[in-house]
Specification:
606 residues; mainly alpha; Growth Hormone, Chain: A; 5 domains; two-stranded antiparallel sheet; 28 helices; globular; transmembrane transporter activity; transmembrane; MFS_trans_sf; membrane
Length: 606
Amino acid sequence: MAHGAHPSPTLGATPRKSTSSSIASTDAEKQQAQIPRTNSPSDVYHHVEIDIKEKDDAPEPPAPAADLAHTLSRVATAASELRRTETRQDGTEYPGGVKLALITVALCLAVFLMALDNSIIATAIPKITDQFHSLDAVGWYGSAYLLTTAALQLLFGKFYSYLNIKWVFLGAIGLFELGSLICGVAPNSTALIIGRAIAGAGSAGILSGALIILAYTVPLRQRPAYSGGITSMYGVASVAGPLLGGVFTDKATWRWCFYINLPIGAITVLVVMFFFQPPKGASASGTASTNKTWREILNEFDPLGTLLFMPAIVCLLLALQWGGTTYAWNSGRIIALFVVFGVLIVAFLLIQWRQQENATVPPRVMKMRTVWSGSAFAAATGAAFFSGIYFLPLWFQAVKGSSAVSSGIMNLPMLISVVLFSLMAGVIVSVLGYYTPFMLLSTVLMSVGYGLISTFQPDTGAGVWIGYQILAGAGVGFGLQQPLMAVQAVLNDKDLPTGTAVVVFSQTLGGSLFVSVSQNVFSNKLVEYVGDYAPGISASTVLSAGATSIQKLIPSEFLNGVTLAYNDALMQTFLVSAALAATSIVGSGFMEWRSVKGKKVDVAMA
């Protein structure tokens, strides 16, 4: 009989016990008389669960043939159930073999390119400013990409909820590729900034889209191992970016920093287009909009909330990037940016409360413990990781005297440990089912690792800085993907895009905000320590020399003092990373203990 056709065993007829429940029964319970079976087919049923429970009250088969038939029937039922767990909720089978491998590689490449574009430009900026004579626009080369990425991530969550997942993802890749092409052929600084903004708009939908596609490609119990590979691309790109940027700039042209995105992005587009099958109904929500008016359809995307949220985030990021560097913290522009941010974000929150289900982030979703604790953990982890990965190469260059390329190589222990421990955590979570222990372990290892890194001195040996990087990288690797696994374990298909977008946005915003905060801490402390350790040279001279040139441009009598000033200023930024890592205990401590191995299925069988 079909599932749901029989009354619950807790209602009506007394249910028969399964073997798993009878093990825990007392001897007296085991000796109770069995309830005789009726001849009515509607009364003959048993329960099948993923762990293949069997009845202890069924009568013994009268003959070996009947016993064999009974066993084969149960095996067939179990096999059928196991096959059912390998299909999506819409009944479509998950891809396997070559198709699964191609989709996974394509998603990894997409996330790698998105993260690479945020770091590869760093070593190309000197050549770009030489060609365009645009030293005053340097800040916009990075911030234009960052601003559009952060501002549009939640909107892409709505797109994935209500539109075709495949085409939204391909559209995001297309925007990213268009922006990269504009950057590559840019004739002037303005065109380059516009291209960076367009590429950032596309990147806003890439990571969340990749993880949503993964959710429809791999069963939940296997997903951690695959998502570990995808999220580890952040670590790979963070170190590979400056290396590739330096190679392209020195051996070819800085424009290849953007051209490289085109062929690799095309591979992702082709694979996703031909091998990924989106859920039936096209969107993750499965809701159809064909019978709705254009006004109703538009309202589903929360246009007013979006118009308030995007400028709010832009104001906040600009205030943090400009404050203490371009403008003083008490300047009118910085104060105005913070005030406008506050007004807009309050208005946005009020709109979310009013819109409810049509909100950019429905309050119902944000109230879920897994979502808000996962977002808090993602924000803290992203902030600690990106702050640390940004300033560690500066320490190698300014204090150890390494070149830009060499500093990237010396940063490899962090990269390798992030990737390996992320993959390791994914495999173990797939086996054990629980992700919360790895979040708690991540908090401890990150805090200790970055705390130890903050003790570096100019004479610190290679064994020490390698070991401490591995420790911090292990903490990041263990925790980086876990909030994303958490929301996928508890949210249904309709809410999955929104929950994923919220976690990705939290991670991006945390990294963006605290890289700016760490930059201000570093700049202010460097000025202070130069005055303490090398009073004979002006702080402006040290700042203008840059990290890679102080060994050449600073007079020898001041070099030791300036090097020590750089070291101590950078150690303050690593203390910020350690503090941020410690705050991740809020997210990991409040995270629910759920399993990704799947819920047991209780099926009534005729």
